Amino acid sequence: MNAARQQDPEAMLQLIELFKADILRLSKVIYMPEEDVVSEIVLEFLEFVQQGKE
How many whole angstroms separate alpha carbon 48 and alpha carbon 46? Predict the structure, then answer.
């Protein structure tokens, strides 16, 4: 998690992969094109991780 906070691309990809199923499940209940929803969720998630406090 600390590496993702420091914008390590590999760590960010690992976090996205870890939560991929949840992201896809959420994208099904938001009434927008799936690709747009997934992109927005991933963006918000990474911003949240980078701003997170320990």
Answer: 5
pLDDT tens for each residue of 4-47: 778 788 989 999 999 999 999 999 998 899 999 999 999 999 99
- What is the length of the chain? 54
Assess contact for 27 and 34: CB atoms under 8 A: yes
How far apart (Å, rounded) are the C-alpha atoms in residues 21 and 29? 13
pTM attached to this predicted model = 0.80
Tokens of 6: 């420091």
Largest interatomic CA distance in the chain: 34
